[in-house]
Every structure is written in C-alpha cells, then in structure tokens.
Design brief:
Elements lengths: L8 H24 L4 H27 L4 E2 L1 H13 L5 H13 L14 H5 L22 H8 L1 H20 L2 H24 L20 H6 L6 H6 L15 H11 L3 E2 L6 H23 L4 H35 L4 H32 L7
Antiparallel strand pairs: 1-2
Helix pairs in contact: 1-8, 2-3, 2-4, 2-7, 2-8, 3-7, 7-8, 12-13, 13-14
The protein binds zinc ion (ZN) (2 copies).
Amino acid sequence: MKNKSNLNWSTILFLGGYHLLLAILLPVYLIYYTPSATLLVLSFVLLYTTGLSITAGYHRLFSHSTYKTNKFIEVIYLFFGSMATQGSALRWSHDHRIHHAHIDKDEDPYTVKRGFWHAHMFWLLKNQKPIKEKIISDLVRDPVLNFQHKHYDILMVITNAIGTLFIGWVTNDYFGALVFGWLLRQFLLHHFTWFINSLAHYWGHQNYSTEHSAVDNYIISLLTFGEGYHNYHHTFAYDYRNGIRWYHFDPTKWLIWTLSKFRLAKDLKKVNHARIAEQMIKEHKRALLEKLTETFSEKREDLEQKVSYFTENLIEKLSKLNTLVAQYKAYKKSRVKTDHIKELLNEIALLKKSLKSEWRAWKEFSKFIMTLEPLPA
Ligand SMILES: [Zn+2]
Ligand SMILES: [Zn+2]
C-alpha cells in the first residue's frame, strides 16, 4: 500500500523516542545522582568530536571539497559521523549540495521558505527522495564512503554503543553514560547542527550577499562548531573557512588548519582578501542605493553617482592590488633577482596606502547615507 502521507515513521519514532527518553531519564538521574566531572567532560568531548566530524568531514570535506586529506582521517570522520546519527556522508553531501544549488527554492530539501521548523527538523520526518548519483559523482565510487552508506544503520548503532559503553567503563556510571554520553549529547548535537539550516538562515546579518537567506551570526557559530558565518559560506562555499577573521569562532577551521600543519590535510582553499572585499563593497553599494531610494533627498542623483564612483574606484584599485600581489608572488617563486621586485613592492605599498584612505572615506560616506532621514512628503 502506498504511504500517502509520505511520513518517515522510523525517523519519527527514533527522534520522538529518544527525545522522550531524555525528558524522562535526565530528571530521574538528577534526582538520584550527581554527574561526575569526568562524565560531563567525556560527554562534552564526544559532542565536539561528533560535531566536528560533521562540520569538518561531512560538510567542508565531502560536500564542498574545500581541502584534501588522507584515508585515515576520512575513516575517523566516518566513524564519528556515524555516531552523530545524521545519515551517511553520501546522503548528507547529496542533500547539502542540493541545498546550495537550489537555496530558498522548492528543490532545496531544507528550505527556510517553508518555515523555521521545516528547515530545522520537520524536513527529516518525510521520506527522502532517492539519491541522484550525478550530484555526488566525485564521491559515489569511493569504497569507504560506499561502505559507510551501505551499512549506515548498523554502524550508527555500533559506534553509539562503543561511545556510550566507553564513557560508562571509564566513569563506572553506565546510567550516566546513557543519559549524558548518548541521549543529551545526541540531543544537543542534533539541534546544534539543525540550527545551521534554521537559525543560520533566519537570524543575523547578510554581510556578503542578499541573494540568499543565509546569515552571519556570532552566537550561532558558538553553537555550531563555527558554522554560524553562513552568509559568507553560501557566498564562498569553496573556502575551507566560515569565519574568516582570526577572532571569528570557527573551531572547524582551526581543526583543518592544525591537520594541515601535521601534513594530514592539504590544498586548503581560501578566497583572497581582495575578492572578499570586492563582494562586500558590491553588497554595501546595493544597500546604500536602496537606502537612497527611501530618503527622497533632493540630492539623490548626486549621491547615487557618488556611491557608484566610490565603489568602482575601490573595486578597480582592489583588482589592481590583486594583480600586483600575484606578480610579486610569481617573481618570488621564480627566484629571479630583478630591480622590478623593488618597484613592485613600492607600488603595492603606495596602492595599499591610497586604498586605506579611500576605504576610510567610503565608510564615512556610507555612515552619512545610512543616517539620512526620509524627507517629509
Ligand atoms: Zn545553508
Ligand atoms: Zn555548505
């Protein structure tokens, strides 16, 4: 008989069942016992290990190929990825690539346009569409990924049993391991990861693009292992970083960077500063012109021209700087000693200086426009 409602009852029962079990067993545990520090620390470590396997493994490696690694690290990602209970890496990457390609459209499996809860978890409760091999053609022939995909259900059970029993054995508290090491850890990990599809498309700033619903939000990055800079990520999905500044909380980026220092990761893809700045300027220009249409200032045309002049000038200078830096790097690599290198360095220094002062003027001018009051009708 055809399932008309299209509901995935095994997922509904699993998710509903463990949420209910947690709601019962957590208070029971806390009434009769006190969790030891070791139990809490180990459960937290497992939360982070499983979370990073999703973000550094499933997401930034398998879904987006933002860097390369070896089979050993891949197997670790798949082991803890199975424990994360979010499906196989093949299925996850397949759905995620569709999310990026068709963001905010009907094809997007977890589009926020169907509401916060659909994007957060309700999409999981429906039967999923079959995997289209061409979407993951680069992954589908990998024997390790195929093994995990084929045996995902049993691997999920075994890895979770290993994690829980290990914590129980170390702490000699198997009940605590069940409640904190599995149920609570699973609950937090699921909702934290689901926040990337819901909150990170809902609550924050669009610094790089308004062409999609993704937003940047520092608080979300604290809960999502660094995936809260989602506006940047949807604009530059091939960058191994999500938080591009040193002070951005992005433990996934730090993990990949550390792996590269131990030669366990290579070819880390990064968007250069000039390209990022250019995108920000273009986006900001759009916001300024939008603001000007709201203010009905009599000087509107002049101001619009000034916005265009500023942006074009900045973008031109940034692209020139990019070319000069590339030339300098090429000279340095070829190790040819020439006076031209000195000239190049001088030119780069001068250009940077002029860019800095223009950037400051642009910021002042932007502030002026953004504080303009609409004229009375
Ligand atoms: Zn997204
Ligand atoms: Zn992504």
